[in-house]
Design goal:
CATH class of chain B: Alpha Beta
Distance between the termini of chain A: 82 Å
Oligomer: heterodimer
CATH superfamily of chain B: Aldolase class I
Structural class of chain B: alpha/beta
Distance between the termini of chain B: 44 Å
CATH architecture of chain B: Alpha-Beta Barrel
Number of domains of chain B: 1
Helix content of chain A: 25-40%
CATH topology of the largest domain in chain A: Rossmann fold
Number of strands of chain A: 37
Radius of gyration of chain A: 32 Å
CATH architecture of the largest domain in chain A: 3-Layer(aba) Sandwich
Helix content of chain B: 40-55%
CATH class of the largest domain in chain A: Alpha Beta
Shape of chain B: globular
Number of domains of chain A: 6
Largest sheet of chain A: 9 strands, mixed
Strand content of chain A: 15-25%
CATH topology of chain B: TIM Barrel
Shape of chain A: globular
Strand order of the largest sheet of chain A: 1-8-17-18-16-19-20-21-22
Number of helices of chain B: 12
Chain lengths: 1196, 332
């Protein structure tokens, strides 16, 4: 049968089959599996059908636990049902998985296997999650490549229907889930052939229905539970054969034959590696290479890991094997070995005798590839070399340098098995410049328009702004198994010139390779601008060197900052992969296909870019000598502390893989304040202060998402030694008379978002397009302004007691303790965090839900939370996504208890410590900065005294004394957490009377995972999982919280009324009970111009979309109405606001009629919300009843 | 009494035409226009910017920030298809055509040559009976000569005419050095009608924010003097039909325009201000005046006080300026 060849990634391959063989799909976003749900949702929105001719029902749930529950329910009532997840999501599904398996229910869960959060979270791939569910009773089937993902998705579905054992079909997160590969696509007839409708009918016949009522899920007692649990054994015994049968049927259909344990290698192998997952690709390539060198090696790929069939395992091994090395992509601390290793050992013990081995093979086990750590043929060779030793190391690691427990194997990193007939290309791009999409497109062109095979894998940065992307592309005449990054490239494209100043881009290029550089300097002048190391590589390796000014071509052709079409054209023009004319034609065809639906103008623009590119691409005549004296920039500044130099700096430089185990903290604890040492220089333009125009309002620094623009008021004496260009004027604030004032920008930390300039209210009276700050090109300012920043930074901060926290113009001189994060340029969330850190950072302990704020807040290499000059600052931790409220609540309980205990000890030791001190410590008023300062001083005295007292109580009191000073507990997360997955916990925490401050950074979507709908998403907005526009209104979290009566609640939007935001933060923190601040945060996921994000906030408030209010229980205690509406009645129609944002506007372009309908309803939502809130706010305070009494009305 | 008129070959039951305005964005309004007696409706405009900028914006926002961070490689679901500005507009014309019997005139608003003019053909295919080409151009570039600008008007018109077979009217502004000559050249380039004049919305300054703000004032009756003069001058000089727009609020305004030589009189501000039903009042007023003054048809009065036919043709020229100044002096 003729099947289509397609290039797609593992997620799409899995979703492709899953969508066709299911009726209900319950989803929830989690990296790296989110895309499977997104595909399913998009296809459902497009009304695509499954093999039975109906469109599956795709439903997002509030968590993976919820998704598993919904799956369980849908299965129990007879629908073919699936879900997709990974990592923590899979952990949340465990309880239901036991149930689903215990009830012998046919289903397949598709898993992009990912690390579990332990000492740290990681979004990357390993088998920790899969191994954590091996006791649930699910069958575990492993796919090693994108083709296998598509094949096994179907095989597992066929098998589960017959076996009644539920299946977990898993593949490696990112390496397989995100690898783009040319594969053969199964068609609907294939799927129909494999799926037996009688078994589907049998599945339905087992469903719960009142027409044939039965009970499932009974409670059983000691008398029968055990026996009942043993009833399932025959099903598990039969399962492996059923899977093999399905594999054989599949082989008959497609020619791709799989075994439960697939052996690959020499028939007389003596050393065999046993493993599962994508690493098998690298291992297979190594086996091929070593066999050619006459080595007796082999590889056993484990497909069906559970139920583990000893019989099939033993049968698959060559009888000649002497040593087995079992590789696990997981770590099980405290175990005598990792799971696959233990199973193999056990299988040999139980079944080895029947295996016909001359001698039972020796087994060693090792760990590799945790969190997508590279696993290369060099490492595989290292393992085979170890096996050949007389006493091979057991419980080893490979791929790292373990200088602590000395588990790691040595290997030769120079060893390579890359075949000569494969073209290997590396592209370094700037995030969002189109490099990755261009490469994905090139793979499609080559994979689908030529007989060649193609593979693409993309490595991204941990920053959300100014990040680097590295694309790894392979093309060749044979299927590509190289499941590792390219380190011998024939072609390297560098799409941003400044990368050359930071990285040794050409270190991985082969001799006579081709180097393409996007350069503002032409072919005649570029050579002198290259760093020394680049010149050396070009000459030494005899590279062909081409340049293009892609940014100029982009500008001239209207492409903006998108380099995709331009650099792709260059690649095809010079790489020789396809004849040039043929390639250009293919690019244009592909442009038409990709952009056709966006209109002819976009197609034309891209065509024009192709033509202009060819005219602007030039080869550089390479001189014979290295002339450059330009050296690569160090990753961190030289003043950085030792840890930052030795560890953080190496990670920044891209050499983190080389760091030894001993360089990492054992318990995941890292220093804060490290973002300041990494000077990223990503802004093309930075704000420049015009001190003559400035009114010193503080708004620019308030809204700065990256804390790079700051104000200081200071004594004039500190100006001594100021750099010549340092600006300073008299402070305008009357209370600061006699002081000087400066607004200073950190040029190397700025992202150039220009939010500050957009917000600045002061206009130049003679030239109104100018403000008190104006964007100017960064490079000419960099050096001078860096000096000015350094000088500014060292001017002492104003005494906090002299600063009115309630006035923005004053409080903005407070030092931000959250700075230079990797958030998106113009982020709408970070200004709130920075504000919190300025006001309360020196006493804050932060519990952060997983999401954007935990990523820009805590993703290595650097940490934006920092310390003040006294060494105090926010202490920060991330537990999970779902438990942030509880986690922070735990902080509060712990602090309160320790404080109480300290109080008890103080009283107990009063005679030793002095009554006055004890009394002052216990009765301290810490409502003000001054009060807190004084208490800190008292605690200092207390500690001094305690040092001299040798008693158990003194020792204990010393350990809890700090808790006598006020601690501000902040629970921070996004709407995905607060409205959905963490709502239960949040609700429980606000139902308590503990003093916690909850800050919800509400972007109305799951921003971090790419904009999926949450219950905060508004009606009519388009989001992932709501491709057709969200049909129902946003959940009113504030009103829910208000129903308790004792919860402080505020809805704020900094861009609409900044002073209201400030007041709400101050009131919330001062309130001695639970506080909830819901902060409207504009977001890149809204499809807006981020520079004017604060204007979007304003429009949101003016249209009534986001009313501002505060609900303060303290007012109720005074007999007043606790609810105060702080924004006025809607002034403009909702449409005038929402259609400035792509999330709403795009529905008018995809489903105009539906957009109209939903707009009307959304306007009604706004009106109704305003009606209710204005009504509530107009009610009299306590004691009175509203006028509208139905009983009274009836009488009248 | 025969109120009918011929506008660009379209037989209209009377000279009242609803000009391009937001009112026609709603099909119900178009139905109400027909019910009120209006003889034809010019659809709200399809803007050049709508066709070009909108697609750029959509493309930008769909791709901005994508493929940058491993967890959020995109931010929006990708629909299988987009119904972009023109499609929506074309659907609307189709619906309008189905909803009413009176002629529906499409409107294209732009200022430069380019891909957008091909939408003229799409508008024709959607069923429009004619097309109004609104060339809204403010000549701000001091290096571009009037000649060049005039040429671009002609080029745009020619490229639109090359795309359609339905009649095409050109709506122009009065800001030409030699308006009569320009009208003649447009006529020669194939314009089936001239719509006089486009009102340029003049911006204002907001003293609070120190910024320039758009400011839209609806026209009043005294705004009709300018088109009145030029229709009177052009009547008989060009083959193209003449339509008057700006400041037509009352039956008197309509009658004056017809006498000056207009084939059609366009209503906008008055419908926005007084409601669509006001058109009926205007018609009644016309009929009453014609009865009282014993006019049998619109045809009879058309151009009766144009420059060619009036007693004092100089009244439309410089001489009138002097007269006006003299009378101004008398008032003082």
């Amino acid at each position: 049968m003729d099947r289509k060849k397609v290039t797609l990634d593992g997620n799409e391959a899995a979703a492709y089959v899953a969508f066709r063989v299911n009726e209900v799909i319950a989803i929830y976003p989690i990296t790296p599996s989110s895309n499977m749900g997104e595909w399913a949702d998009e296809w459902a929105a497009q009304d695509k059908k499954n093999i039975w001719g109906t469109t599956p029902l795709v439903q997002e749930m509030q968590s993976e636990a919820g998704a598993a529950g919904a799956v369980h329910g849908a299965l129990q009532t007879g629908a073919m049902t699936t879900t997709f997840t990974a990592s923590q999501g899979l952990l949340l599904m465990i309880p239901n998985m036991y149930k689903i398996a215990g009830e012998l229910t046919s289903t397949v869960f598709h898993i992009a296997a990912r690390s579990l959060a332990a000492h740290a979270l990681s979004i990357f791939g390993d088998h920790a999650d899969v191994m954590a569910v091996r006791g649930t009773g699910f069958a575990l089937l492993s796919s090693n490549s994108v083709q296998e993902v598509m094949d096994f998705a179907l095989i597992s579905q066929a098998a589960t229907l017959e076996a009644r054992v539920p299946f977990l079909h898993f593949f490696d997160g990112f390496r397989t889930s995100h690898e783009t590969l040319k594969i053969e696509q199964l068609n609907d007839e294939d799927i129909r052939f494999m799926i037996n409708d009688d078994l589907v009918a049998a599945h339905r016949a087992r469903a719960l229905t009142p027409d044939r009522p039965v009970m499932r899920g009974t409670a059983q007692n000691p008398d029968v539970y055990f026996q009942a649990r043993e009833t399932i054994n025959p099903y598990y015994d039969a399962c492996p054969e059923i899977v093999q049968k399905a594999m054989d049927k599949f082989a008959g259909l497609t020619g791709r034959a799989y075994k439960l344990f697939d052996y690959y290698g020499a028939p007389d192998a003596e050393s065999v590696i046993v493993m599962m997952g994508s690493g098998a690709g690298a291992a297979q390539e190594t086996v091929d290479y070593l066999i050619k060198k006459n080595q007796k090696v082999g590889l056993l790929k484990v497909r069906l890991y559970r139920p583990f069939s000893i019989k099939h395992f033993i049968a698959a091994l060559p009888k000649t094997v002497k040593t087995l090395a079992v590789l696990d992509r997981t770590k099980e601390p405290g175990s005598i070995g990792e799971p696959l290793y233990l199973d193999v050992v056990n299988a040999l013990v139980e079944g080895g005798e029947a295996g016909g081995f001359k001698k039972l093979p020796k087994v060693i086990g090792g760990r590799y590839g945790l969190s997508s750590k590279e696993f290369t043929p060099a490492m595989v060779k290292g393992v085979y070399d170890e096996m050949a030793k007389a006493k091979p190391k057991n419980h080893f690691t490979v791929g790292i340098n373990d200088d602590v427990s000395h588990t790691s194997l040595d290997y030769d990193p120079g060893f390579s098995t890359e075949p000569d007939d494969v073209v290997r290309c590396l592209f370094y791009g700037l995030g969002s410049d189109g490099t990755v999409s261009a490469n994905k497109n090139s793979i499609k062109i080559i994979g689908e328009d030529t007989p060649n095979y193609a593979q693409g894998y993309f490595v991204y940065d941990s920053k959300k702004s100014g990040s680097i992307t590295v694309s790894h592309l392979r093309f060749g005449p044979k299927p590509i198994n190289s499941t590792y990054l390219i380190n011998r490239a024939n072609f390297i494209g560098c799409h941003l010139f400044v990368f050359l100043e930071k990285y040794d881009i050409l270190k991985d290029i082969v001799e006579k390779g081709t180097f393409l550089l996007n350069s503002p300097f032409g072919a005649d002048e570029v050579w002198d601008k290259l760093p020394r190391v680049a010149q050396e590589q070009i000459i030494k390796k005899k590279l062909k060197f081409f340049v293009i000014d892609g940014y100029k071509v982009a500008k001239d052709t209207g492409m903006g900052g998108r380099m995709n079409t331009i650099m792709q054209t260059c690649f095809f023009a010079i790489s020789g992969i396809l004849p040039k004319d043929e390639a250009i034609e293919a690019i244009k065809k592909s442009i038409k296909k990709t952009y056709g639906k966006k209109g002819d103008e976009i197609v034309k623009m891209n065509f024009n870019a192709v033509d202009q590119t060819l005219a602007n691409l030039h080869e550089v005549k390479v001189p014979a000598k290295v002339t450059s004296t330009i050296e690569l920039k160090p990753p961190v500044v030289k003043e950085a502390p030792e840890f930052v130099q030795k560890v953080t700096g190496e990670i920044i430089a891209g050499r983190g893989d080389d760091l030894a185990v001993s360089s990492m903290p054992a318990d995941g604890t890292f220093p804060t304040g490290t973002a300041q040492w990494e000077k990223r220089n990503i802004a093309l333009e930075i704000p420049v202060w015009d001190e003559k125009v400035c009114i010193q309002c503080g708004k620019c620094s308030l809204v700065c998402p990256h804390a790079v623009i700051r104000g200081k008021a200071y004594d004039p004496k500190y100006l001594t030694g100021a750099p010549a260009t340092f600006k300073s004027v008299d402070a305008k604030d009357k209370e600061w008379a006699g002081k000087k004032f400066t607004i200073q920008v950190s040029p190397e930390d700025c992202t150039g978002c220009a939010l500050c300039v957009d917000t600045c209210p002061a206009k130049n009276k003679s030239d109104t397009k100018l403000k008190a700050i104006n964007m100017r090109p960064q490079p000419p300012l960099r050096e001078e302004e860096s000096k000015n920043w350094k000088f500014f930074f060292n001017i002492p901060d104003l005494d906090r007691n002299l600063v009115k926290a309630g006035a923005i113009r004053q409080m903005q001189v407070l030092r931000p303790l959250f700075e230079f994060s990797g958030a998106c340029a113009g982020c709408g969330e970070t200004p709130y965090l920075k504000l919190m850190s300025q006001l309360f950072g020196d006493r804050a302990v932060v519990a952060n839900a997983t999401g954007c704020s935990s990523i820009y807040g805590g993703n290595l290499p650097t940490t934006p939370y920092t310390k003040n000059c006294e060494g105090r600052g926010p202490a920060w931790s991330n537990s999970l996504f779902e438990d942030c409220a509880e986690f922070g609540f735990g902080f509060r309980l712990s602090i309160d208890k320790q404080k109480e205990f300290a109080g008890e000890l103080l009283k107990k030791m009063e005679s030793q410590l002095g009554g006055e001190l004890v009394s002052a410590l216990l009765s301290a008023d810490q409502k003000t900065e001054a009060g807190i300062f004084e208490q800190r001083e008292r605690v200092k005295i207390l500690k001094e005294k305690l040092k001299d007292i040798k008693s158990a109580d003194a020792k204990m009191l010393l350990s809890v004394a700090d808790m006598l000073v006020k601690k501000s507990v902040w629970i921070i997360g996004g709407d995905g957490w607060a409205y959905d997955i963490g709502f239960g916990g949040l609700d429980h925490v606000i139902a308590s009377d503990r003093n916690v401050n909850i800050l919800v950074l509400d972007t109305e979507v799951y921003s971090n995972t790419g904009g999926q709908m949450s219950k905060s998403t508004s009606r009519s907005a388009v989001a992932k999982f709501a491709a057709g526009g969200k049909p129902l209104p946003k959940k009113d979290l504030a009103r829910i919280a208000m129903t308790y009566g004792h919860v402080y609640v505020a809805a704020v939007a900094m861009g609409a009324r900044d002073e209201h935001t400030l007041r709400s933060f101050l009131e919330a923190e001062a309130y001695e009970g639970p506080s909830l601040i819901i902060a409207y945060s504009h977001c890149i996921a809204h499809g807006i111009n981020m520079t004017t994000g604060m204007q979007n906030q304003k429009a949101a408030v003016q249209s009534g979309y986001w009313p501002l209010f505060r609900y303060n229980p303290m007012l109720a205690r005074e007999g007043k109405n606790p609810l105060q509406l702080d924004s006025s009645e809607p002034k403009m129609p909702l449409a005038d606001y929402i259609y400035t944002e792509n999330r709403f506007k795009m529905l008018t372009k995809s489903k105009p009629e539906e957009a109209k309908r939903l707009l009307e309803l959304a306007q009604k939502d706004v009106n109704e919300r305003w009606r209710i809130y204005s009504g509530l706010a107009a009610m009299p305070g306590a004691g009175a009843t509203p006028a509208a009494n139905p009983a009274t009305e009836q009488k009248t | 009494m025969d109120l009918s008129t011929n506008y660009m070959g379209l037989k209209l039951k009377n000279p009242l035409v609803a000009s391009a305005s937001p009112l026609s964005e709603n099909i119900d309004n178009i139905k109400r226009m027909e019910d009120a007696g209006i003889a034809a409706v010019v659809h709200h405009s399809l803007f050049e910017e709508q066709i070009t900028r909108e697609v750029y914006e959509l493309d930008h926002h769909m791709t901005h920030g994508t493929e940058s961070f491993a967890e959020s490689l995109t931010y929006f679901p990708e629909p299988s298809d987009f119904i972009l500005g023109p499609e929506e507009y074309l659907n609307h014309i189709e619906k309008a055509k189905k909803a009413v019997k009176i002629p529906v005139i499409g409107s294209l608003n732009g200022h430069s040559g380019g891909g957008w003019v091909k939408y003229a053909k799409r508008i024709q295919e959607a069923g429009a009976d004619a097309l109004e080409l609104n060339i809204y151009f403010v000549a701000t570039d001091p290096d571009v000569s009037g000649e060049k600008i005039e040429q671009s008007y002609l080029d745009i018109l020619r490229s639109v005419k090359a795309n359609v077979t339905i009649p095409v009217a050109v709506k122009i502004s009065p800001f030409f050095s030699a308006l009569a000559n320009m009208a003649k050249r447009l006529d020669a380039a194939g314009a089936d009608g001239l719509v006089l004049f486009n009102r340029f919305y003049q911006p204002d300054i907001d003293l609070e924010t120190l910024s320039v703000v758009p400011n839209l004032f609806l026209s009043t009756s005294n705004k009709m003097r300018l088109p009145l003069r030029w229709i009177a001058i052009l009547y008989g000089e060009v083959k193209a039909s003449l339509a008057a727009t700006s400041g037509i609020h009352t039956s008197e305004d309509v009658l004056k325009m017809l006498m000056a030589g207009a084939d059609a009189t366009m209503l906008c501000a008055t419908l926005l201000k007084n409601g669509i039903g006001h058109a009926g009042e205007i018609l009644k007023g016309m009929e009453l005046w014609m009865q009282e003054n014993e006019y049998e048809s619109v045809k009879q009065m058309k151009g009766s006080i144009s420059q060619k036919s009036c007693e004092n043709p100089e009244a439309f020229e410089r001489a009138n300026y002097m007269k006006a100044l003299q009378s101004f002096g008398k008032i003082l």
